[in-house]
Design the sequence.
């Protein structure tokens, strides 16, 4: 039985300051609950109240202004069995408003004690998000014009399990704290108090003023929310529990099935439209190259809005490790659409007569120094729609370039695709034979 | 071309196993193999794949990954989780590091083991979200108030993404500091061929963190929340029990400790790969994606019978001063190098460190200093092997 959770140090607060009253209530609450000090964490941030963790025998975390709720969230997420109590000032609820709102929304099991004295006591009495309208502070010389934030209503409407408003003088404060700490839910206690150094003197403020201001603002006292909701740190673990023990990110190793005769770096660029399976086709080529004993490198380019415009992949295939991955002049350029053509301009212009250019029929007029092959799948009796065209063209080009057997591309498809998707891809690969044969035959002078 | 041969591929009698993966996958796997158990991050190109990997993979190993409300919350949650005993990772790009900045200072002051991936993007502000750049080299070094040392590792390949992430976790835990893995869009998003053996080295066996304390350059013991002892953490100047103090002796000792625990151990932290050649008059120095173009240039120069030395820097911070000076002295230990070329996708972030180290050494040893030149590029394109080749004496 621990009779106190206070250590032997005396509080450093100004005479009449409410912080000591609140910390005394916290001590009573801890005594009532008999929490294990090694399993309890007091998280504080900046402000006079933030000195508070130093007067207790529990674990303590003293961090940056307004971030206490975020640190506490991390502690709770890492170890949901810990009791995590946040001591934050009204200043901290302003600068750290996003953390407070999101912790409430998630209903993460923190107990947030707001030491609300309506101003920044540590830095000289500046106004905060809870300063009442009309109040004089160091930064509202003519009276505060900003509406004070209703902390309790804000967290309550956004999902906090518990929300309570009262004052440092309330006789039941320790009991309220004990209930909040014992609860599994997110709990915020908006505890109004006096800053005798600044707010009291600047505004002729007193204990009586606390209830007058509250009535003027129409802010409710007592419990504004008092219900258990699923607690986030446990809910998150429960949601992931089904996956526990599954292998995490294990290698999908590729064992080469042969040795390609390719004796130099071969650079290929595939350019098409977003949604045209350009990148996945390029990836299949890369995997097929690995299956053929080659090294491969792939980098993609696409606009920020991913479902519109171009999609382009650069591929390098090589018998040795690929060091530099930039492609300026592709040995083979495959252009599947107008979008792709626009994105591939610089490659097109860099190509030489010994390079290859593969284009779809509507791009057959494109000017190029490279040897041009028009791949007309419809003429070859194959319906290669928008989504199938890149893979069909790539398969036809590979068949033509003969870098490795097309069986390697088929193997790569089997490795990464399933069922009807794989079958559709394999059908395209098979049909590409006719398309390339016809294209080459018709291209002959 | 020779005909295609079917059959298993062997190198020196060992069956070859390869993978076609990107740097983000390698970093995520390195983190998982290092025992990472917590991730918090916020979506930002080009670091988002790490958030997605960790959200998907961490539950499988009993860990927790969360998308935080912003970058400040991401690193705050990581710091909290680390102090509760988790091995924490976060990932962002340069603009996110700006928002991490104040909490990086907290992690230094509170001696928090934490790994931060910075997938660099081009330019200030939004810049080029998916454009390769190396502009955060000095930013991560000086990115928080007070000017304290940090450790930053820069992988230049997908395989190194794995190994250096493992190393980052080791260093973070050993020195109780935030450690950066500084990478870029090109390394993190591009697919590369990786030999299984080069990145399947299992992580070292780890004991529960336990550090000797006493010396100012020594390492304090780590006790997580929820452990057998009560632990105190604070971002303010503190005594050895974690209580606030203004006592000049204690404050001075603390700040000297935060500095010296890294600086005094720089030689054991520094990492670089030297590829030196006798008779070389030029030493190329680079890191990250640019080091790949350097390696390609070295390969073609040597094939053409032109000697050249190269140094790939893996620890940008601390600067690998010993490796740089060893390379400058040459493989035969007398000054062979007449010219140093530092290549990077910025206007000389790391060149100034090379100048500092080499000019100081030259002044101290009364030797003529080699010329130090730079190859720089800021147009979003990579530095090419040809750019290196053109600078060779």
Sequence:
């Amino acid at each position: 039985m621990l009779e106190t959770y206070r250590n032997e140090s005396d509080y450093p607060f100004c005479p009449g300051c409410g912080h000591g009253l609140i910390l005394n209530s916290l001590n009573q609450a801890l005594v009532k609950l008999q929490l294990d000090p090694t399993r309890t964490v007091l998280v504080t941030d900046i402000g006079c109240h933030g000195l508070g963790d130093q007067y207790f025998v529990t674990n303590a975390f003293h961090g940056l202004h307004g971030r206490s709720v975020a640190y506490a969230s991390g502690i709770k997420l890492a170890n949901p069995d810990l009791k995590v109590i946040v001591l934050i000032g009204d200043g901290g609820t302003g600068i750290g408003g996003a953390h407070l709102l999101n912790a409430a929304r998630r209903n993460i099991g923190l107990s947030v004690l707001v030491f609300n004295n309506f101003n920044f006591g540590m830095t000289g009495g500046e106004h905060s998000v809870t300063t009442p309208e009309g109040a004089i502070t160091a930064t509202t010389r003519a009276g505060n014009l900003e509406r004070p934030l209703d902390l309790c209503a804000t967290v309550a409407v956004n999902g906090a399990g518990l929300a309570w408003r009262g004052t440092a003088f309330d006789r039941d404060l320790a009991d309220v704290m004990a209930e909040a700490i014992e609860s599994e839910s997110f709990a915020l206690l908006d505890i109004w108090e006096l800053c005798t150094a600044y707010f009291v003197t600047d505004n002729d403020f007193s204990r009586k003023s606390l209830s007058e201001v509250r009535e003027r603002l129409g802010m409710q006292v007592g419990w504004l929310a008092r219900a258990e909701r699923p607690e986030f740190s446990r809910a998150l673990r429960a949601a992931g529990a089904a996956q526990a023990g599954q292998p995490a990110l294990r290698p999908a190793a590729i064992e080469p099935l042969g040795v390609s005769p390719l004796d130099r770096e071969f650079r290929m660029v595939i350019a098409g439209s977003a949604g045209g399976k350009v990148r996945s086709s390029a990836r299949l080529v890369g995997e097929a190259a690995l299956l053929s004993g080659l090294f491969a490198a792939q980098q993609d380019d696409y606009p920020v809005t991913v479902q519109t415009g171009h999609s382009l992949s650069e591929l390098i295939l090589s018998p040795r490790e690929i060091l530099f991955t930039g492609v300026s002049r592709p040995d083979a350029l495959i252009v599947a659409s107008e979008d792709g053509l626009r994105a591939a301009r610089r490659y097109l212009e860099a190509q030489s007569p010994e390079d290859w250019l593969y284009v779809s029929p509507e791009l057959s007029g494109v000017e190029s120094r490279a040897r041009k092959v028009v791949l007309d799948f419809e003429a070859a009796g194959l319906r290669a729609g928008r989504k199938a065209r890149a893979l069909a063209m790539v398969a036809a080009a590979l068949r033509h370039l003969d870098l490795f057997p097309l069986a390697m591309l088929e193997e790569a498809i089997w490795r990464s695709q399933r069922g009807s998707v794989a079958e559709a891809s394999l059908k395209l690969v098979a049909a590409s034979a006719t398309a390339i044969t016809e294209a080459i035959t018709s291209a002959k002078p | 071309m020779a005909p295609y041969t079917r059959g298993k591929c062997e190198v020196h009698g060992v069956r070859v196993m390869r993978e076609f993966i990107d740097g983000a996958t390698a970093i995520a796997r390195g983190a998982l193999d290092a025992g990472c158990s917590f991730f918090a991050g916020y979506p930002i190109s080009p670091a988002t794949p790490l958030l997605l990997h960790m959200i998907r993979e961490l539950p499988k190993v009993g860990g927790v990954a969360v998308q935080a409300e912003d970058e400040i919350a991401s690193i705050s949650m990581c710091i909290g989780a680390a102090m509760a005993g988790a091995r924490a990772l976060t990932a962002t790009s340069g603009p996110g590091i700006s928002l991490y900045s104040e909490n990086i200072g907290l992690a230094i002051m509170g001696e928090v083991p934490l790994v931060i991936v910075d997938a660099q993007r081009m330019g200030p502000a939004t810049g080029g979200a998916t454009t390769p750049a190396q502009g955060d080299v000095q930013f991560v070094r000086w990115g928080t108030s007070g000017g304290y040392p940090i450790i930053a590792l820069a992988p230049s390949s997908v395989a190194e993404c794995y190994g250096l992430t493992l190393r980052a976790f080791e260093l973070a835990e050993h020195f109780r500091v935030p450690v950066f893995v500084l990478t870029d869009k090109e390394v993190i998003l591009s697919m590369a061929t990786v030999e299984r053996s080069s990145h399947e080295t299992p992580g070292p066996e780890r004991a529960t963190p336990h550090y000797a304390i006493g010396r100012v350059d020594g390492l304090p013991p780590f006790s997580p929340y929820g452990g057998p002892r009560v632990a105190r953490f604070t971002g303010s100047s503190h005594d050895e029990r974690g209580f606030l103090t203004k006592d000049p002796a204690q404050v001075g000792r603390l700040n000297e400790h935060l500095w010296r625990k890294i600086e005094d151990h720089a030689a054991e932290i520094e990492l670089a790969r030297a590829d030196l050649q006798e008779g070389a008059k030029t030493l190329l120095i680079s890191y990250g994606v640019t080091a790949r173009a350097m390696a390609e240039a070295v390969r073609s120069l040597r094939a053409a019978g032109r000697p050249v030395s190269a140094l790939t820097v893996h620890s940008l911070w601390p600067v690998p001063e010993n490796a740089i000076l060893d390379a400058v002295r040459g493989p035969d230990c007398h000054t062979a190098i007449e010219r140093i070329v530092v290549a990077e996708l910025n206007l000389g972030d790391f060149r100034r460190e090379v100048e500092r180290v080499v000019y100081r050494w030259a002044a101290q040893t009364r030797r003529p200093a080699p010329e130090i030149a730079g190859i720089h590029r800021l147009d979003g394109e990579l530095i090419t092997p040809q750019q290196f080749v053109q600078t060779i004496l």
Remarks:
- Chain A has a mean pLDDT of 94.
- The two ends of chain A are 99 Å apart (CA to CA).
- The CA atoms of residues 20 and 228 of chain A lie 30 Å apart.
